[in-house]
Specification:
The protein is an alpha/beta fold. It contains 19 helices and 27 strands. Among the domains are: about 380-555, Glycoside hydrolase family 3 C-terminal domain (Rossmann fold, 3-Layer(aba) Sandwich); about 635-745, Immunoglobulin-like (Sandwich). It has a 6-stranded mixed β-sheet with strand order 11-16-15-14-12-13, with helices on both faces. It has a 5-stranded parallel β-sheet with strand order 4-3-2-1-10. Helix 12 packs across helix 13 (about 315-325). The two termini are about 40 Å apart. The structure holds alpha-D-glucopyranose (GLC). Alpha-D-glucopyranose binds near residues 105, 149 and 281.
């Protein structure tokens, strides 16, 4: 035994030394290269050039700049021949033969399009996140892309914000779990292995907290809220080894992220010890002039470089101003060397020096059957069943169904936002899939509306006729893809156009309506909720939307998706999220007085004395974590291994889950805690662990959840992380509003 221990000890020492030498060897190569580089070449590495997402060509000017070593990376070059051509210029003709990186937004698939990230988050499945991003990486690599501008990890509590579609939802813990999985999928175990590509965790930071949900807008936020809610997924990205980070367009408390040394230096470098490189978002550096933070391009370059922004995307302040700033000693050459060091370190780790021409790229297939199967599986797991009156779902395949709505056969729209390389001709729509599932004669199709914003009622008649000839109406509603995503915030998040009007007209036909929503955000549906028997949130499900929906609607597959964003009754409730604080006057149903219940000439009083809306109450339509399935589950008593824990302990919880329904299903068991009394008020619930369990009808299983006490803490307004002794509540529940409560103490 002793020999074994000695061997293991020596092996570990050798492994660590080897790793250290590896690192040391890379650092030596970096420093040797920097020694040889001119000032112009160093500045060149800090420049990300390229053109719009639809660019096809390569300008002579760009080739010449690469030949001189004045470019570090290129974005949006999608022609592999051109990529290899310009890489050859960089490797063979530039002064120090430094290869380029080739970046692209591959956000939820390259050619095989998976559900939008908000949909993927609703799977609560890290394996799905990893597998889908691995396929995205392999397909991208096959097209000579070695750097993706993903994952987007911006926590968001505001469904008006168009980019909630790209986000991992409103919870920092779930967002952190998914972030690590995405990065592992993109980067694999070995960043330099063919098929793996660099991740770029974005947008640093707090972009999801823009005022009013208006994109690019200001963010005013306390340090404790920033650290407790918006930074955790970025910290997780550092722990997962994200090769790069991207700064966000917004300012944080008056300082734009691309020039924010608190974020880029104090937090990212000093606290988190990050050693990759930071790229700005598109022109976000020179936008610091528009923000009113810089007077001109020279000040922009000075503030961005001083704050620790490494590579400038598309704007040219570094190319135009850094040399002068160094000559004027406003920036030292060592500061520039540090920027170049970050960039070269990632290039060495990515293996582009040894493999600049994407060897083995042809071994990675595009749209292969396994990828399409994963696209279908991930879509199935992303769907959330929100309503199912009288168990109208699943539908028998013997029924006659009217397939209606602008999203029933919308090849492009079902792909969702950020699908630069997605191809709508590969989409299988719900109509196509239903025609393959039902006898053709049993499917009556009438779109009723040409697109989601359609204001015309000329298609109503045909839709009503189809409804009258059918037993059930499947209404595919929602948003065109362009109505969410970057720069596409909405002040009214109900169904666009006259979709509601058509649903209300169809309701008069007396046939049950199953509403399937494809959208990039929660959609307020209260006005039509009484008219529909079932509601399925499908997000934008991607290439395989049709087969996935046909499988869940007919019961071939069961629902398992759970909401990762709170679903409001009305847009006026926003921001609304589950992990809110209690306030001094929390609303409750016993004291709430609704607007319709106020007596005429009522005495001026505080009407229940609590925090609510007279006309919308105080609860969302559907809470975080909510989702139904074709079966049901019961939760046994919460058993704690210890009720009193010290700081080095872990909270260990055991619960027996039983499938009380008639078919196999997957339950997402969620563990929430509440720090009941602390030095700053804490949320009424915080998700701290979850697990998924698949159970057959009648099957029970004991599950364990464990959370280190060290993870029960929070950051104070002074930026200090503390776990304060005291009483904690915990719930093990199917969503953020349910479950039995248990109490434990931290010493
Ligand atoms: C965009 C987006 C960012 C994207 C970048 C490159 O403006 O904000 O997410 O990666 O530009 O396309």
């Amino acid at each position: 035994m002793k020999n074994r221990i000695a061997f293991l000890f020596i092996f570990f020492q050798m492994f660590t030394y080897h790793a250290f030498c590896q690192t040391d060897a890379v650092e030596n190569k970096i420093n040797a290269l920097i020694e040889k580089m001119t000032l112009e070449e160093k500045i060149g590495q800090a420049c990300l050039k390229g053109t719009s997402s639809r660019s096809k060509g390569l300008s002579d000017e760009l080739k010449e700049q690469v030949r001189k070593g004045l470019v570090g990376a290129i974005l949006n070059l999608t022609d592999t021949a051109l990529v290899l051509q310009i890489q050859k210029i960089a490797v063979e003709e530039s002064p120090n033969h430094i290869p380029l990186l080739f970046g692209r937004d591959v956000i939820h698939g390259y050619k095989t399009i998976f559900p939008i990230p908000l949909g993927l988050s609703a799977t609560w499945n890290a394996a799905i996140a990893e597998q889908t991003s691995a396929v995205a990486a392999h397909e991208s690599y096959a097209r000579c892309i070695n750097w993706t501008f993903a994952p987007m990890v911006d926590v968001c509590r505001d469904a008006r914000w168009g980019r909630i579609a790209e986000s991992p939802g409103e919870d920092p813990y779930l967002a952190s779990v998914l972030t690590k999985a995405y990065i592992k999928g993109y980067q694999g175990e070995d960043l330099s292995a063919p098929g793996n590509i660099l991740a770029c965790t974005k947008h640093f930071a707090a972009y999801g907290a823009v005022e009013g949900g208006r994109d690019y807008n200001t963010v005013n936020i306390s340090e404790s809220l920033l650290r407790n809610v918006y930074l955790p997924p970025f910290k997780a990205a550092v722990e997962a080894g994200s090769a790069t980070f991207m700064t966000s367009f917004n300012d944080v408390n008056g300082v734009p992220a691309s020039g924010n040394s608190f974020l880029l230096k104090d937090v990212l470098r000093e606290e988190w010890k990050y050693d990759g490189f930071v790229v700005s978002d598109w022109n976000s550096v020179t936008e610091m002039i528009t923000h009113g933070y810089c007077a001109d391009e020279k000040e922009v370059a000075l503030k961005a470089a001083t704050a620790g922004m490494d590579m400038e995307m598309t704007s040219q302040s570094y190319a135009h101003q850094l040399k002068v700033l160094i000559q004027e000693k406003k920036i030292t050459e060592e500061q520039l060397n540090e920027i170049v060091r970050h960039i070269l370190r990632i290039k060495f780790r990515a293996g582009v020096f040894e493999n600049p021409y994407f060897k083995e790229k042809d071994s990675f297939k595009i749209l292969d059957p396994a990828s399409l199967e994963l696209a279908k599986t991930s879509a199935v797991k992303s769907f959330v069943l929100l309503k199912n009156e009288k168990q109208i779902l699943p539908l028998s395949t013997n029924k006659t169904v009217a397939v209606i709505g602008p999203l029933a056969h919308a090849h492009k729209e079902q792909l969702g936002t950020w699908i630069f390389d997605g191809d709508k001709t590969n989409s299988i729509t719900p109509l196509t899939a239903l025609l393959q599932t039902y006898a053709t004669a049993n499917v009556k199709y009438a779109a009723g509306l040409k697109y989601s914003r359609d204001e015309s009622e000329e298609g109503f008649k045909e839709a009503l006729a189809a409804a009258k000839k059918s037993e059930v109406i499947l209404f595919f509603a929602g948003e065109e893809a362009i109505l969410s995503g970057e720069a596409h915030s909405r002040a009214d998040i109900s169904l666009p156009g006259v979709q509601e009007k058509l649903i209300q007209a169809l309701a008069k036909a007396g046939k049950p309506i199953i509403l399937v929503i494809m959208a990039g955000r929660p959609i307020t549906i209260d006005r039509i909720l009484p008219n529909v028997a079932a509601v399925v949130m499908a997000w934008h499900p991607g290439t395989m939307a049709g087969p996935a929906l046909a499988d869940v609607l007919t019961g071939k597959e069961n629902f398992s998706g759970r909401l990762t964003v709170t679903w409001p009754k009305t847009v006026g409730q926003i921001p609304i999220y589950y992990n809110h604080t209690n306030t001094g006057r929390p609303a409750d149903s016993t004291s709430f007085v609704g607007i319709k219940d106020i007596p005429v000439e009522a005495w001026q009083s505080s009407l229940g004395n609590n925090s609510h809306y007279l006309d919308a109450g105080f609860t969302p339509r559907y809470t975080f974590g909510y989702g139904m399935s074709y079966t049901s589950f019961s939760y046994g008593d919460i058993l704690l291994k210890k009720n009193t824990l010290d700081q080095s302990d872990s909270l260990k919880v055991t619960v027996t889950i039983t499938n009380t329904g008639a078919r196999t299903g997957t339950e997402t068991v969620q563990l929430y805690i509440q720090d009941v009394s602390a030095s700053i008020v804490r949320p009424v619930r915080e998700l701290k662990a979850f697990t998924q369990v698949e159970l057959k009808a009648g099957e029970s299983r004991e599950i364990q959840l464990s959370v280190p006490v060290a993870e029960l803490g929070f950051y104070t307004n002074e930026g200090k992380y503390v776990v304060e002794p005291g009483t904690f509540n915990l719930w093990v529940a199917p969503d953020a509003a349910s479950g039995a409560k248990q109490v434990f103490t931290v010493k």
